[in-house]
Design goal:
There is one protein chain. The protein is 44% helix and 24% strand. The radius of gyration is 18 Å and the shape is elongated. The longest helix is centred in the middle third of the chain and has 24 residues. Strands 2-1-3-4-5 form a five-stranded parallel beta sheet, sandwiched between helices. Helix 4 packs across helix 8 and helix 7 crosses helix 8. The protein has eight helices and twelve strands. It has two domains: 122 residues, Rossmann fold (3-Layer(aba) Sandwich); 100 residues, Arc Repressor Mutant, subunit A, CATH 1.10.10.10. With 231 residues, it is an alpha/beta fold. Strand 8 and strand 9 form a beta hairpin. The relative contact order is 0.10.
Length: 231
């Protein structure tokens, strides 16, 4: 039986999401606060996590960080706060998607299906070609690690996936919409500012180490590409 962890302190929400989860073939596991969510995650090892941001004891952001430190399980944040900063923060700490209340439970289940499809696709791709090496850059998608010149760079799951997408296609220009579709799915209701902020934070982390043979280049008015520098 596949478990889905639903963490929210609103019982009406957990009840309706439990009902729809069972219709999708999941066995729901319920947590009403952050500490219980971590306990249930460890006990049941769910296939996907629906995580409210504003919870007692530990908020959803902190729970997401703890989950992501030991697992790549899909995490979808659910919250009443819909500002760009909140969305970007959630995605940067490793969430796979972000849904704003009020929501349709059918939409939530559609997001669950989409994120699990992307996870399955990434796993298949990783099993066939799980390492990319370009110059002093090494990316391992099985281990979700990135090294520059042998130094491990601490990146979020989404940042690793961004680098994998770009470095897998050297010198190919990705529009902002391309990256939204590839990394967050066609049903992610974000905008180009999410991509720009994400790339800015990623560059800041990468630039702590020199990488003269490659760079993430901005193509003004279009998007970004992983550029291999010819010598």
């Amino acid at each position: 039986m596949q478990h889905i962890l639903i963490a929210d302190d609103n019982q009406d929400i957990t009840d309706i999401l439990s009902t729809y989860s069972r219709m999708e073939g999941f066995e729901p596991v319920i947590a009403s606060d952050g500490e219980e969510a971590i306990k249930m995650f460890t006990q049941y090892n769910p296939e996907v996590v629906l995580l409210d941001v504003m919870m007692p004891k530990e908020d959803g952001y902190e729970v997401c960080r703890k989950i992501r430190s030991k697992s790549n399980v899909p995490v979808i944040l659910i919250t009443a706060r819909g500002e760009d900063f909140d969305k970007i923060m959630g995605l940067d700490i490793g969430a796979d998607d972000y849904i704003v209340k009020p929501f349709s439970p059918r939409e939530v289940m559609a997001r669950v299906r989409a994120v699990m499809r992307r996870m399955t696709k990434a796993s298949k791709e990783a099993s066939s070609e799980n390492v990319i090496s370009v110059g002093n850059l090494d990316i391992n998608l099985d281990e979700y690690t990135l090294h520059i010149g042998g130094t491990k760079i601490s990146l979020t799951k989404k940042e690793i996936e961004t680098m994998w997408t770009l470095a897998s296609n050297p010198n190919k220009v990705f529009t902002r919409d391309n990256l939204l579709d590839s990394l967050w799915g066609f049903d992610y209701f974000g905008d180009s500012r999410t991509v720009d902020s994400h790339i800015k934070r990623l560059r800041a982390k990468l630039d702590v180490e020199e990488h003269p043979s490659w760079t993430i280049k901005t193509i003004w008015g279009v998007g970004y590409k992983f550029e291999v520098v010819e010598k």
